[in-house]
Each structure stands twice: as C-alpha cells, then as structure tokens.
C-alpha cells in the first residue's frame, strides 16, 4: 500500500497537501534534500516513495546503520549514469563519519537527493554537516480518521491491498485497529493483514473480522469492552474530569482502565495537560513532578510505569486547582485572532542596528534594572490595547495567591 503519488499519502497534509512545501517542491521540480522525523509508521518512507513516483526519478532505499559505504557508492554510480537518484536513508541519525564524508559531495552536486528518515530529534542527533544541507520536516502521528481511511483503501485495492478477498470489517473492529496502534499506520495495516489471513471464511465465503478478532491480532483489549468506538474517549474524558474534580478513587479507576489497555502515550499526554491546565499556578511543583513521573513511566514502560503514574494522579487530585493561566492565554489569543494586534510601541522596538535611532526605535526605553526594585512605570502593550487585563488570578493555592497580590500591585503602580 506504499503511496505512488503525493495524493496517495495519508495524513501529513501540512507537508504534502495542495500548496504545501513538499507538494510545491515536486510541482516546481525543485527538489532538495530533506530529513523527515517523527514516530514510526507515520509516513516517512511513504512520502519519499510518493516523491519519487511523482517525479519519475530512480528511487533507492538504504539503512544508515546496516548498509555500507559500498552500497552508497553503487547509488552514486547510478546517479552519474541516470542523472538524479532519490535516496531514502533510514535511521539517518546513525550515519557514521566515513559514509557522511562520502555522501556530502553528491548532495552538493544534486546528483543524489537525500531523504533521511529518523525517529530521533535531528537537531540533537544528526551531524550539523548533514543538517545544514537538508530541509527538516516533522512528520506527525496520524489521526484515527487518517488510519481508518488507509484501512478502507487497503480493503478495496485489488492490486496492492486486500480488495480481492471478500472481507467484512466491522466498524468497531476498524475503529479498534486505528486506535490500538497510536498513530502507527504500518502496525494497523499489519494487523489488518494478519486478521484477514488468519480468519477462516464463513459458509458464504466471507472473511468476517470482528472486534474480538482484532483484539486477538493486536494482543490488546478495548477499554471497558468498547463496542462502539466511543468508550475509549469516554474513559479519557472521565479520567481528566475526575482529577479536575479532586476525586482520587475515580481517577485511579480510570487510570487502571487506561493502563490495562496499554495506552501509555495517551496517559502521559493527558496527565501533562491536566497538570498545567487544571492545577496550573495553584501548585507549580505538582506540574514539575508530573513531568518527572511521565518521564519515569516512559523509561520503565508498563506495567512498572503504573507506579509513578499513580503518584502523579494522587497528587494532582489532592492539589488545589487553577486554570487561570489557560484562561489568560486564551483571552490574549482571542484578541490576536480577532486582529487586535496593534503596533509595538516605538520604545520597545529593536534598536540593535544602524539607523534605529533615526526611526525613533528604542530611544525612550527605560531599562528596569537601572531603577529601584528593578521596576519602572512604562507602557508595554500596543496603544490600542492599553489597559487590557487577560490574567484573572485565583486564590486556590499559596503560590497563586502571592502571584495575584504582586499582579494587582504592579497593575496599580503602572496606571
């Protein structure tokens, strides 16, 4: 089911959709080397394959960890003969210096268009010499809708998919396959193929794939016996709302359901959202400890990861709550999105260049550290937004109570 054209790619529309950067590069026939990074099974190889199919260039795949310099030399020779070769180099973060030094001149000449694929952060794990010669694009986890779309394509495609088989895939089984793989399309397609090949046909010849069969193929149970695809999201919703409502026992119950389902990525993401959205400034150390608990759980994996997760859930439940930071940010965004930006006051504009003084930029800026208590009365908001008050403090914890007192004191002094 590997895409042959950009229009076949599932998801990643921020890169390959109409008018987006990779689509524009292909349309203009101005390809440059790039690095695609993101989780496994999200479309890095698919994008490379689709680019090659859309441009008709030769397409070769190598692995930076297991293939040798000699394999790179073969690709380079082919590029000399044919003009241009698109090389997908998987695990590019493991490219050693010898292979890198061989590859660099060919990238600069344009004979090889490199598409590096990695699950690692390229800004940390890829040599700067490679980074400086490539565009870096993030490939994001696929949504449930993306994966369901790909499963439907696989079921109906008679040439590259399972379209020649009389398969009936129940809606709840399809939803489970999409959900159980946490955005990994490769795993979803592998699971569908296993289910199709291992399920004996019924008397009428139909291969009927139920949710029970899907659970068996993925070796994972749906949350709370989910039969309609909604229970999964109901449990996640109940988990957050129980913590927000300070019900420790209910929160632990829903955590147990998520742990039993093996949904560690969802638990971790949701806990960090809760820590900053619902507890926030009422208890900032709880947010820091939640991040530490999440990191520990990710290192440990399940089932051991349930222990730091339980610590975080109990603390978040019993902590004072405040959503004031989120509300303040959303209020500021409302103004910005409504076009109420206003011009930056002249005294705050960048003055670190020749001619800034003539423009009046930075001339009247008062440097707070030159004044008593490192503060001086001065306007910071654009003129049209002067007096705007986005932050509405709450008094649910000692820390935010102190912030509120300082906030109101500073506002009064600046009037």
UniProtKB/TrEMBL annotation:
Superkingdom field: Bacteria
Gene Ontology biological-process annotations: DNA synthesis involved in DNA repair; DNA-templated DNA replication
InterPro entries: AAA+_ATPase, AAA_assoc_2, AAA_ATPase_RarA/MGS1/WRNIP1, ATPase_AAA_core, DNA_pol3_clamp-load_cplx_C, MgsA_C, P-loop_NTPase
GO MF term set: ATP binding; ATP hydrolysis activity; DNA binding; enzyme activator activity; single-stranded DNA helicase activity
Alphabetic keyword roster: ATP-binding, Nucleotide-binding
Domain AAA+ ATPase: 30-142
Family to which the UniProt record says this protein belongs: Belongs to the AAA ATPase family. RarA/MGS1/WRNIP1 subfamily.
Cited PANTHER family: ATPASE WRNIP1, WERNER HELICASE-INTERACTING PROTEIN 1 FAMILY MEMBER
Identification of the protein by name: Replication-associated recombination protein A
Originating organism: Levilactobacillus senmaizukei DSM 21775 = NBRC 103853
């Amino acid at each position: 089911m590997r895409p042959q054209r950009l229009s076949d790619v599932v998801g990643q529309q921020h890169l390959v959709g109409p008018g987006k950067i990779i689509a524009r590069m292909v349309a203009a026939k101005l390809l440059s080397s790039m690095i695609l990074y993101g989780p496994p099974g999200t479309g890095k190889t698919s994008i490379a394959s689709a680019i090659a199919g859309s441009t008709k260039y030769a397409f070769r795949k190598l692995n930076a960890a297991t293939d040798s310099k000699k394999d790179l030399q073969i690709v380079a020779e082919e590029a000399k003969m044919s003009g241009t070769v698109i090389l997908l180099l998987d695990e590019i973060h493991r490219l050693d210096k010898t292979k890198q030094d061989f590859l660099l001149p060919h990238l600069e000449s344009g004979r090889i268009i490199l598409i590096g694929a990695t699950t690692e952060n390229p800004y940390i794990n890829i040599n700067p010499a490679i980074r400086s010669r490539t565009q870096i694009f993030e490939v994001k986890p696929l949504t449930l809708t993306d994966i369901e779309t790909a499963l439907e394509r696989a079921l109906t495609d008679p040439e590259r998919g399972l379209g020649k088989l009389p398969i009936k895939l129940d809606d709840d089984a399809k939803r489970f396959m999409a959900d159980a793989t946490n955005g990994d399309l490769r795993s979803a397609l592998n699971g569908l193929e296993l289910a199709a090949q291992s399920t004996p046909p019924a008397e009428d010849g139909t291969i009927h794939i139920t949710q029970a069969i899907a659970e068996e193929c993925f070796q994972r149970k749906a949350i709370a016996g989910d039969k309609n695809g909604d229970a999964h999201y109901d449990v996640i919703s109940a988990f957050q709302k129980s913590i927000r409502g300070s019900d420790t026992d209910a929160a632990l119950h829903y955590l147990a359901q998520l742990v039993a389902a093996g949904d560690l990525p969802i638990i971790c993401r949701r806990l960090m959202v809760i820590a900053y959205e619902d507890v926030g400034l009422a208890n900032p150390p709880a947010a820091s400890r939640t991040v530490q608990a999440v990191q520990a759980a990710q290192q440990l994996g399940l089932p051991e990861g349930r222990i730091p997760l339980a610590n975080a859930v109990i603390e978040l439940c019993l902590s004072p709550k405040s959503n004031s930071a989120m509300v303040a940010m959303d209020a500021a965004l409302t103004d910005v999105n409504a076009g109420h930006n206003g011009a930056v006051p002249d005294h705050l504009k960048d003055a670190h260049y020749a001619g800034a003084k003539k423009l009046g930029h930075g001339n009247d800026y008062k440097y707070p550290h030159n004044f008593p208590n490192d503060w001086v009365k001065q306007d910071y908001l654009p003129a049209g937004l002067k007096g705007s008050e986005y932050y509405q403090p709450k008094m649910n914890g000692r820390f935010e109570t102190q912030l509120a007192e300082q906030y109101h004191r500073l506002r009064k002094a600046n009037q």
